[in-house]
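Sanity check

After download, print the first record. It should look like this:
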Amino acid sequence: MTLACGVDVGGTKIAAGVIDEDGSIVEELRVVSPATSAEAIEDAIAGLVTELSSRHDISAVGVGAAGYIDKARAVVMFAPNIAWRNVDLKTELEKRVDLPVVIENDANSAAWGEFRYGAGHDVDDLLLVTVGTGVGGGVVLDGELYRGAFGVGAEIGHMRVVPGGILCGCGNHGCFEQYASGNALVREARASAGGGSLLARNVLDLAGGDPDKITGPLITEAARGGDPFAIEQLTELGRWLGEGIASLTAILDPAVVVIGGGVSEAGELLLGPTRRAFAAQLTGRGHRPSLEIRKARLGNRAGLIGAADLARR
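Expected structure tokens:
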């Protein structure tokens, strides 16, 4: 069985794993990411791959990284949280590891992982929406990963949903991720709690009385315990997600939408409102087949698994 190495490069950690053809992780390693130094990141990736290849017969390496990757899957044109600007990462890594290397956007890698081995394994058309710090996306159409003309397609988090809305880190106003992300969830909860909302009292108490200590997991925990304010926050987030997915569905017409990212751990507390908002806003509803909205299956290893499988192709 052919083995490939998948690498998931984040702003805080780098994970590398040996993946077999069934999508199973044979071995995995993690290190802290030296995000301020491009060369240090490359050395860290090479170190992980070299260590894994010393114990496994690896045929190729797939690297998933947040940012704009060119069509040739070689050059990182821009990475928002990592010190890469127009870096030919493929060439740099191949010099270090002496193996074929493929570079891919991290959300694209995750979408491919869920398509091949996860929640979308039974369809040919899939939209992945990752709900974490921001909102990421990946698209598979007719069984092929969609990258766009220049390799930077499916940046759904920066679809504008509110003209003149909240300033986004990308420089525009009103982007989808400013309303449908984990950051948005926390921002709104902290604002309510800090503003003296009586409904938010329990969540504020769970945070030790400090609004700045309210986190996404804390809100989810409170919602699971039946807290009305926490449930309301997840419901509002689900509304934004559902409406955004309805707009994307009008363009892409996927068979399945997979919701991943850290906030997806809220499960039906998030997915239920998302499905309801989607059903209410979908163009042509009642006159077209209905897609399924599913929770991701592979968790935070989807990108690593997907990158490895893409490296074999």
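If your output differs, re-run the checksum step. Summary of this record's structure: The radius of gyration is 20 Å.
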